[in-house]
């Protein structure tokens, strides 16, 4: 009927034509052609007119709501559990690995400069330190490469570092060979290696560290937000169940319907579990960030500052005043000694910050010890500089890298080693703090996705059964 | 007549530009002594420096090595100021990268002191002025910062294979020459480069920033003495860094003073000097302009040194790299102005 009138309406204006044969041919099959949806809707409307129909409808909606709640809960919680697990087992180790790559590269460079200062045949301990550092850097680079997505910026950075590392080693070996022969071109190779490290490798390592930290923060951001969708559906499901039971009570004067009560209990359990579990997990993860990651980041920066300070202290003696810097007030100072002062300031600030972040005595102690080492380092450095400025280069050298051992020279190198060792202890402590807190957080989410799914299915079954029982009274 | 030719050659804006340059130069030379006239003692030194500067620029200065002051053993203000320091020590700018000139032998046990021909001379100056060859603080200085280090007062003098040139005479004062050398080409033995000539075409040549070698290369490439296709863009802070570039295959040849080129060749048996010296240059001790008493004092030391010490130091440090015969390296007997 509607179809034919519409057809007529679209026809060009003209004399009214009687219902022609073709027109009736199209109209005839149209009248019964109704979509399945419209048919179903009509049947539903018809059913809603009767109590059994209404009951069926309510049962279906309740089951659907509870199932949707369970599905959303399982999905959102498994997302968070995965992110929490990534924090613990992927992004934090990678961030720590990147920090270690930077540290070992800088340490290798410092060891190389120290070995050069010591003379033609470098001490075995220095050589060992250099080799351990490069081995660490190479191993951590492999780990980082395995975890980097192909074609990502991090992968490009890692590839760049992998290319530069053997070139750097080549320059250092040439420096060594020439140094052994007594040729000053060895020193020129050392300068070239140092320039490659400072200008290309360390910036790349810093870049990698920044990227891994971004990934860590992203994983934290994925693990900690509240599962709002699941929570909203849970509340909706509980409200619907309450409404259905109230309706049931008003119509039948019966207080309890076992199926609906079971569905309510299951939904409430899931909602409670989810809220408590997530809150505990969030607290654990937040604590692992506050007490672990932040401390680790500050300690890493302090360690780098102490390494840079040591490197600059060595280079002051290697370059012997060849590089200068003009300050804002017009004073001309030795570039490396100036940089040493800046790095020591950064180290002092970092240590003070790390001490305020440390939340127990086990974390504070190594930081305090490092602060003490740093103070001695500063005092000895002043003595060494005074010797050098007075023309006693050998005396300054003894005060920085140590003499032949039994001289009691009290070199600054000892202080640097102690600072580094104590900072290493502090890092170990904070890493275990991080692991404890983050593992606790992750475990609070354990079983939640599966639990939410199973309980939701049980709840939905309860709702259907409860309504079915009431429905059977109409047969 | 020369002026007329010059004017004829410069037309339009070129002429205006040249006049502007002349005006600026005149203003600088007029104002310079005014600025210095504050201190009465410095005034004479300032005028002396001015006269020298004007002469140096006016008559494309000839024989810069013959322009030092006559020797004297008297202590003037500069020497007295050094002696009255808390620790009376000469602060001397040296090189620590020039094999056999100023370097540290890493295999010498128990000593990290610099040694070499320049270091011997530096210690001799300290011995004669302060009475102690160890009354020295050595400061290593990159090639392009030698004049700046003297002018800023960071060092009292520079003994660092520094060639006496007219350009540098405008900024620092030099002693009489203490060594004769000249620019030379260094290249791998197997290279087809034969010297400072057309075989440098399409070759990459390394030199130190602020060195006479770089000045010479730039001028000669412009004038056509070496082919315009020669690539002289690689410059390094220190001539020794050129040997690193050569060994790493980043350049094909090095141009530096023959004395230093020989030091480089001594550190690598696969490279050699190619062709003869193509300039004649003299090393001098550089000091601050106006420190006339110190210049005269150093010239007195050099007079003594040429008679006793120079030959022994040559034999110790340089005969192995430059040859048994010291005569090509011996400076001419000095002419003072």
TrEMBL record, chain A:
It comes from Streptomyces griseoaurantiacus. This is Secreted protein. The chain crosses the membrane at residues 55-75, 226-244, 256-276, 450-468. Residues 20-29 have a biased composition (Low complexity). The keyword Magnesium does not apply. Keywords: Membrane, Transmembrane, Transmembrane helix. Residues 1-29 are annotated as: Disordered. It comes from the Bacteria.
């Amino acid at each position: 009927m509607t179809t034919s009138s519409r057809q007529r309406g679209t026809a060009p204006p003209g004399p009214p034509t009687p219902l022609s044969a073709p027109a009736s041919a199209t109209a005839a099959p149209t009248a019964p052609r109704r979509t399945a949806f419209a048919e179903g809707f009509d049947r539903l409307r018809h059913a809603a007119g009767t109590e059994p129909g209404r009951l069926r409808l309510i049962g279906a909606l309740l089951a659907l709501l509870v199932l949707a709640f369970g599905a959303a809960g399982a999905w959102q919680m498994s997302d968070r559990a995965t992110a929490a697990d990534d924090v613990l087992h992927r992004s934090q180790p990678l961030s720590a690995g990147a920090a270690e790559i930077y540290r070992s590269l800088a340490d290798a460079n410092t060891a190389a400069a120290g070995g050069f200062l010591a003379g033609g045949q470098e001490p075995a301990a220095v050589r060992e330190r250099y080799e351990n550092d490069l081995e660490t850097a190479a191993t951590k680079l492999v780990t980082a490469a395995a975890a980097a997505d192909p074609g990502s910026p991090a992968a490009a950075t890692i590839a760049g570092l992998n290319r530069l590392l053997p070139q750097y080693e080549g320059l250092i070996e040439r420096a060594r060979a020439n140094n052994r022969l007594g040729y000053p071109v060895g020193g020129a190779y050392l300068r070239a290696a140092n320039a490659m490290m400072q200008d290309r490798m360390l910036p790349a390592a810093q870049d990698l560290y920044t990227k891994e930290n971004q990934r860590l923060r992203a994983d934290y951001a994925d693990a900690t937000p509240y599962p709002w969708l699941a929570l909203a559906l849970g509340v909706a499901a509980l409200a619907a169940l309450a409404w259905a039971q109230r309706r049931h009570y008003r119509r039948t004067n019966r207080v309890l319907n076992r199926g609906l009560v079971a569905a309510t209990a299951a939904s409430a359990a899931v909602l409670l579990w989810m809220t408590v579990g997530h809150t505990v997990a969030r607290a654990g993860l937040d604590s692992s960030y506050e007490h672990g990651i932040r401390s680790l980041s500050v300690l890493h920066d302090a360690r780098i500052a102490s390494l840079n300070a040591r490197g600059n202290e060595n280079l002051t003696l290697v370059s012997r005043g060849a590089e200068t810097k003009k300050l804002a007030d017009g004073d001309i100072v030795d570039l490396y000694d100036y940089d040493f002062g800046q790095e020591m300031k950064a180290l002092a600030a970092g240590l003070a910050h790390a001490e305020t972040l440390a939340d127990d005595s086990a974390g504070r102690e190594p930081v305090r010890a490092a602060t003490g080492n740093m103070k001695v380092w500063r005092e000895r450095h002043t003595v060494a500089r005074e010797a050098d400025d007075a023309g006693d280069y050998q005396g300054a050298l003894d005060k920085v890298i140590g003499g032949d051992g039994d001289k009691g020279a009290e070199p600054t190198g000892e202080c640097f080693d102690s600072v580094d060792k104590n900072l290493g202890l502090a890092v170990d402590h904070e890493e275990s703090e991080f692991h404890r807190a983050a593992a606790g957080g992750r475990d609070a989410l354990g079983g939640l996705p599966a639990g939410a799914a199973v309980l939701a299915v049980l709840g939905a079954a309860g709702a259907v059964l409860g309504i079915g029982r009431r429905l059977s009274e109409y047969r | 007549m020369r002026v007329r030719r010059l004017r004829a050659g410069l037309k339009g804006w070129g002429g205006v530009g040249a006049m502007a340059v002349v005006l600026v130069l005149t203003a600088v030379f007029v104002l310079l002594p005014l600025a210095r006239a504050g201190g009465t003692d410095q005034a004479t030194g300032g005028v002396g420096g001015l006269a020298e500067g004007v002469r140096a620029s006016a008559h494309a200065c000839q024989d810069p090595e013959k322009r030092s002051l006559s020797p004297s053993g008297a202590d003037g203000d500069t020497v007295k100021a050094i002696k009255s320091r808390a620790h009376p020590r000469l602060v001397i700018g040296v090189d620590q990268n020039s094999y056999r000139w100023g370097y540290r032998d890493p295999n010498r046990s128990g000593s990290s002191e610099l040694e070499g021909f320049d270091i011997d001379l530096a210690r001799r100056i300290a011995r004669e002025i302060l009475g102690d060859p160890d009354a020295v603080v050595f400061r290593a200085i990159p090639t392009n910062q030698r004049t700046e280090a003297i002018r800023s007062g960071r060092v009292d003098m520079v003994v660092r294979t520094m060639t006496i040139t007219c350009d540098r005479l405008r900024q620092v004062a030099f002693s009489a020459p203490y060594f004769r050398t000249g620019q030379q080409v260094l290249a791998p033995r197997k290279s087809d480069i034969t010297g400072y000539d057309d075989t440098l075409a399409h070759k990459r040549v390394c030199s130190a920033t602020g060195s006479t070698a770089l000045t010479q290369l730039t001028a000669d490439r412009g004038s056509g003495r070496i082919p315009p296709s020669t690539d002289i863009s690689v410059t390094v802070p220190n001539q020794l860094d050129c040997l690193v570039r050569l060994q790493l295959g980043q350049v094909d040849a090095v141009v530096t003073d023959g004395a230093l080129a020989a030091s480089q060749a001594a550190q690598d048996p696969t490279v050699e000097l190619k062709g003869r010296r193509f300039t004649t240059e003299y090393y001098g001790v550089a000091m601050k302009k106006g420190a006339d008493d110190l210049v005269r004092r150093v010239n007195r030391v050099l007079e003594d040194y040429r008679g006793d010490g120079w030959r022994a130091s040559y034999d110790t440090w340089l005969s192995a790299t430059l040859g048994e015969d010291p005569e090509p390296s011996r400076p001419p007997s000095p002419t003072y102005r």
